[in-house]
């Protein structure tokens, strides 16, 4: 249950950041640069390791974004639908679980690829680095939001 809540929160927050038209290409590049610097430091990647890690990580993220887009579309269809029956909700839950399984399979596939080229001890730290990075991002957005009020 905690994993589902975490996934929904990450999707919801990540969507907000990327879906905003206010974000310019410059801001996105700045965000990506901060992410690369943060992860490279947290995982203690050498330049050679970073050179092979980042293409794999970016590929994994691209696949995840595609799955998450399908997931959001499905979620919005159910949320905005009128007169759904119990069977419709059961089907929607099945779809959501299918999306989560696909996300897990992508993660499994790419972690296996990454540990072929970067020490597993460094890849082990990846999930924690992602959580820390998102936490810092949330905190920064919250501070900026509070300072604008």
Topology summary:
Layout: H1 2-19, H2 25-42, H3 47-80, H4 86-117, H5 120-123, H6 126-148
Helix pairs in contact: 2-6, 3-4
Protein name: Periplasmic heavy metal sensor
Structure, described:
The chain is globular, with a radius of gyration of 17 Å. Helix content is 87%, strand content 0%. The chain has 6 helices and no strands. It has helices at 2-19, 25-42, 47-80, 86-117, 120-123, 126-148. With 149 residues, it is mainly alpha-helical. Among the domains are: 47-118; 120-149. Helix 2 crosses helix 6 (126-148) and helix 3 (47-80) packs antiparallel against helix 4 (86-117). The two termini are 34 Å apart.
Please supply descriptive tags for the structure shown above.
149 residues; 6 helices; mainly alpha; 87% helix; disordered N terminus
Summarize the structure.
This protein has 149 residues and is mainly alpha-helical.
Largest sheet, in brief, is: none
In terms of quaternary structure, the protein is single chain
Secondary-structure-based class equals mainly alpha
What's the helix-strand series? HHHHHH
Protein name: Periplasmic heavy metal sensor
Organism: Odoribacter splanchnicus
